[in-house]
Specification:
single chain; alpha+beta; 2 domains; elongated
């Protein structure tokens, strides 16, 4: 009986094993399908523009400006005011009033108002009833046709325009910040890779030094130097991994992701062609071969802060005009018509007294004009300040563009120098290894060459990142950086 059951048990176990193998492969396939694909630079910029918390303050500022604009525009809207009253006076007589008033203010100061009401006084059958309507038109003669009437609405619209520019400027800065954080992660990853290779070489050198020391081909000092190099490589690798983790956390904050969420970056091409394809290189077609001067000309027409400075000059000009108009006295012309007597016909004399056309002129003029005069003088000072600020901003933009242009050119030269330095360091390391393997020298030259290789690799990676950031900074300085193109997927 036992002999018969043993094969059956083996078959059952075998079937279980055969059934588990496909399940494990399926789970691996599911994990692979659920794995997050590497994040590209354009995708990171688009994600930060859509979800970064850094844009929230300026977005809320724009919303507030839009609310204030709607509030200022409501001043010129149609206003309907109903009126309903009921009650008793001290003589116990009932009073009831029902009416509605419709008014509107026009942009040039005209006030239009139409009213209709009915009232009842007393109790039936001796109650007094009446109904009527009327309209009035009031036009300021001196101030009405000036800019003071709609200055509030103009200021509200300007606030919306300024907030829109601030939001776009913040989006441009976010593109630069996100790119810097992304490239910093790439830099740390490449430094980690270089440190790992350096640790492998140091470990091999340590093992080789110990083996050569055992057969008398190396000294104990060579072993100590190789061991120290290994320890330094391990420490450098630990520091680089910690720096990579910190850089990833910073990037996640910009993207609006949770710190514990997984994130893997796609290796970006930081060559000249790769930078141009990623939208990090400046648009040379927009600036001919005139050097920095052409970039400056583009910046003065495209930068948002320069545009805002010119708009503030316009605001100051409007302020001076409003203050000048406010120096004039208030002079209003009013015309109106009232029709009463639509109720009981027992008050004909009273109705005739109230019914008809009326017109008049009213004015107010304060003998103390110090406040209006001070406002006009302050507005002139504000205009001069705005003009000077706009001029200084143009000069600052000129300096920023020229500095960014020089940094961009210098970064290209630095890459060329660091590539030569890395090739030289690698050749020195190769020669030092050959000399050590053939017993012509100790491993001191190898240790020194290893430090030179790691340093040159780090410098080259840093130069490539600086070149990418210099190109993007130049686009930011010239005002040609367009975040919308990153979101739409086209080349900026």
């Amino acid at each position: 009986m036992k002999v018969r059951c043993a094969p059956l048990l083996i078959v059952v176990l075998g079937g279980a094993v055969l059934g588990l193998a496909p399940a494990g492969a399926a789970q691996d396939a599911v994990r692979a399908s659920n794995a997050t694909p590497p994040l590209r630079l354009k995708e990171a910029i688009a994600e930060s523009l859509a979800a970064s918390p850094r844009l929230r303050p300026v977005s809320e500022q724009l919303e507030s400006a839009a609310i204030q604009q709607a509030l200022a525009a409501s001043k010129f809207g149609l206003k309907v005011t109903p009126q309903v009253t009921t009650g008793r006076d001290p003589t116990a007589l009932t009073q009831r009033t029902l009416g509605v008033a419709v008014s509107r203010q026009l942009p040039f100061g005209t006030q239009l108002q139409v009213t209709a009401n009915t009232y009842e006084y007393g109790t039936s059958p001796n109650a007094v009833r009446d109904a009527g309507y009327g309209f009035t038109v009031t036009q300021p003669l001196l101030r009405g046709f000036g800019p003071a009437m709609n200055a509030e609405l103009v200021s509200a619209r300007r606030a919306v325009d300024g907030s829109t520019r601030s939001l776009e400027d913040a989006r441009q800065q976010l593109v630069v910040t996100t790119t810097a954080a992304y490239l910093n992660v790439l830099r740390q990853e490449r430094l980690v890779d270089a440190s790992e290779r350096a640790l492998e070489r140091a470990t091999k050198l340590n093992a080789m030094s110990e083996a050569r020391a055992r057969v008398g081909l190396a000294t104990q000092l060579d072993v100590l130097r190789a061991d120290l190099l290994t320890s330094q490589a391990e420490s450098a690798l630990t520091d680089q991994r910690a720096a990579r983790a910190d850089a990833l956390d910073d990037l996640k904050l910009l993207l609006g992701r949770a710190p514990e969420s997984p994130l893997e970056l796609s290796p970006e091409d930081l060559t000249e062609d790769g930078l141009a394809a990623a939208g990090l290189a400046p648009d040379l077609d927009d600036a001919p071969a005139g050097g920095a001067g052409d970039f400056v000309a583009v910046a003065l027409g495209a930068r948002l802060d320069v545009q805002e400075a010119h708009a503030r000059v316009g605001d100051a000009v409007l302020g001076v005009s409003v203050a000048k108009w406010n120096l004039l006295p208030q002079l209003d012309f009013t015309v109106g018509y009232t029709r009463r007597g639509l109720g009981t016909p027992s008050n004909l004399a009273f109705n005739e007294l109230l019914t008809g056309w009326r017109y008049g002129v009213s004015t107010t003029y304060a003998l103390d004009r110090s406040q209006a005069s001070a406002g006009y003088a302050s507005a002139q000072i504000g205009l001069r300040s705005a003009q000077q600020a706009a001029l200084e901003l143009q000069q600052r933009a000129d300096v920023e563009v020229r500095r960014a242009y020089r940094a961009w050119l210098h970064a290209a030269q630095t890459i060329s120098i660091q590539e030569k330095a890395m090739n030289l360091a690698q050749q020195q390391l190769h020669i030092a290894q050959l000399r050590y393997e053939r017993g012509l020298a100790g491993n001191f030259d190898i240790v020194d060459a290893e430090a030179g290789v790691l340093q040159s690799q780090s410098a080259l990676i840093g130069a490539q990142v600086e070149r990418a950031m210099a190109g993007l900074t130049l686009k930011r300085a010239t005002g040609t950086l367009q975040p919308a193109r990153f979101v739409n997927g086209s080349t900026p």
